[in-house]
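Quick one: DNA polymerase from Pyrobaculum calidifontis, structure tokens please.
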Amino acid sequence: MENEFEFEEFEEEVQEYEGEAIEESKLKGVVSVTIPPSLVLAVVYDGAEGKALVKFYDPVGDVVYYWYDNTGHRPYLIVKMSPEELVEKFPDLLKHPGFSHIDVEEKYDALHDERIVVTKVYAKDPLTVGGGKKSFRDMLGATWESRIKYHHSYLFDRGIIPGMWYRSNGSGLVPVEIFIPPEVKSSLGKVFKQEHAKVAEEWMPLFQAPIPHLRRVAIDVEVYTPQENKIPDPKEALYEVISVAVVGSDGLKRVFVLKRPGAEADLRYRPDYEVFFFDSEYDLIREVLKVIVQYPVVITFNGDNFDLPYLYNRALALGIPKEELPIAAKRDYVSVVPGIHIDLFKFFAIKAVEAYAFGGVYRGERGLDGIAYAILGVGKVERQKNVSKMGYWELAEYNYRDALITLYFTLYNNELVMKLILLMSRIAKMPIEDITRSQVSAWIRNMLYYEHRRRGWLIPNKEDILAEKGQVYTKAIIKGKKYAGAVVLDPPLGVFFNVYVLDFASLYPSIISKWNLSYETVNCKGGGERPIPELPHTVCRDRPGMTSTLVGVLRDLRVHVYKKLAKSAPTPAERQLYDVVQSAMKVFINASYGVFGAENFPLYCPPVAELTTALARYVMTSTVLKATQLGLIPLYGDTDSLFLWDVSEDKLKKLIEYTEELGIDIELDKVYRFVMFSGRKKNYLGVTADGGVVVKGIVAKKRNAPPLVKELVEEIIDRLKNVATVDDMLKIREEVIAMVKETEAKIREKKITLEKLGIKIVLNKNLNEYTKNKPQHVKAAEQLLKYGIQVGRGDAIVLIKTKDAMGVKPIQLARIDEIDEKKYLEYISTSLEQVLEAMGVSMEELRGAMRLF
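--- reply ---
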């Protein structure tokens, strides 16, 4: 069953880490000025050397190289005063201990469409520019480009693209030439407008460059916990590390276990992994540190917040010298040497990744267990006790499984996750450690900043854009939004057969490209065209906008090149790779319009976002009007999809031709045998011609429903797959009514097992961390504690809804006569009333005189 999700705009849970990426460890990779063809793993600032450092990985030699800047590049900010004015106004600048030198440079100010001469003030270190005490940014007042992290500024200026291939013969870095297949290169003349073809040609190597296997190791740490359900503080690291699992992509499978007084370490054979026992915690941690330095990539799940900072601080507490540690614990993330650290907890929490790369399959899940079940179909080992009370072999198995799942996230489906990360790193011009810890707005920001520097454009301040371009004029319908959004046609109530769904291919990106929308082209000097009467905003068409060009190129590469190659490439490996490429592009282009309407975006430009949605409404409404004129019957329209009833091929062809005249591609997305509409927006169930089921909104709440309700919903959907005619639907309607009545009777008469009524919810925190509002599964877990059953973060609680004052009991303590049948009947209503209403049946009518309340 396919579930469709929409994430046009979303609140980001992952916040980009603050401060500079500074290399602190004395441990290093192979320092060299000559580099064989290698991939850029990271760009950081080495504080001890006072230089930018590029980490390369050579997959052939399996070596991490350290290449230090040899150009004398320095951190800087920009002011619009001349050097003479600057020194006269700020005489203390030259005396600042961090001052390096001043230079002048000509820049293009796209916001005001003029060339200007600016002064660049260089510093000896990044903190002098901004972030440190008495920084230039604080001293000089009005500055530009002063909030860009130095390691980003360096790669922008040097044109270094993370995830791409370079080599050096000792004189400097040179990009490795990338072969572009003829079937890809030929699209330049066929697909792209002349002004876009050159840009597309520059982007193609990013998608065609080889993506090698990055040898990596997953690490999971278990710590002794004297107080039940309280996670040890990694900053204090007061308690022993009792077990560490390390699982490598090269076949390494080990669990390091600390011996305990009075517990015999019986040597059992483990077919899946090796277990090593240590008398000393010091020696155990030393062994883990040896593993870390042997891999170019370290993978964890929540390693930024717990595993690696705990190892770091525990190692220091045990007397291991700081300079010997391959771990650097920063304020809000943790890095490793000589390679990089990817925390998959933060990567999977990025909403754009969840929505566009994985289609919402793990929507709302944040724990390892929930995401693993959704993506991989496997889960953690369910524990019955605290890790501190587990026996050696139970602990080893629990620890090993967590590390194995963490690694497998990056191996399944031909290394999909790692390929996505590398491709998105290339598109965003953002190092891997940054992109896996940042929201999509930061990715798009870096992509645009890189392009500004490449073109010699001044990067504007957000305040300048707002002052120059103005605010919004439409009023949002949805609370909390700043402008009117997409158009949604009210759907009917009922069942409709032979429904065609047309999809406006990448509607918002297409609009940005077609109407030349970018911060510098809207409301520009000299007027311009007014693309839509309802808004006073104008757009200049005399020069291509930066955003419209980049978004348009990515959109056309995805729709017209890589999406097609994902189906037509000659080998399965090529088809799979091209599918990953188009998925990575999708993440960017689908989020490209929303960022301009987000106040925290540094290029925030409300008119761009407002025009995009207004033009989308125009495209949808004009297409609906044309469909009606052609004699087609529009049933429902939602953002970029249009549902048509009982379509003829000739009329459909004319409608597609009409949208092409608008400059928007529309394609047949699905043909439904029938669709059940509930009369509510974004809410329907459809069965395609091949028996596939698409559900939107109708059963969205069933994830935490009891098994009885889930099974009922699944059985009803399974029967609906066989419906081909109206007579079939009428027959199924009676069957569904009978099934619902039978299920409700079982609940009322309590002729059912508790297992069918249990609601399974995982604890995301330890019980003592729930201080204000206590969800029902927490209340159930607290009852278990009273009976000596220990539970904590990561444990699944199965609860039963009861009639007592608490309203809930854990399944272990509940009796069937205590169940609150009213609550369970509500679950059935919530999950099925919309399907039943589409069939012409209300829950009230179905229950009739049988209702108890």
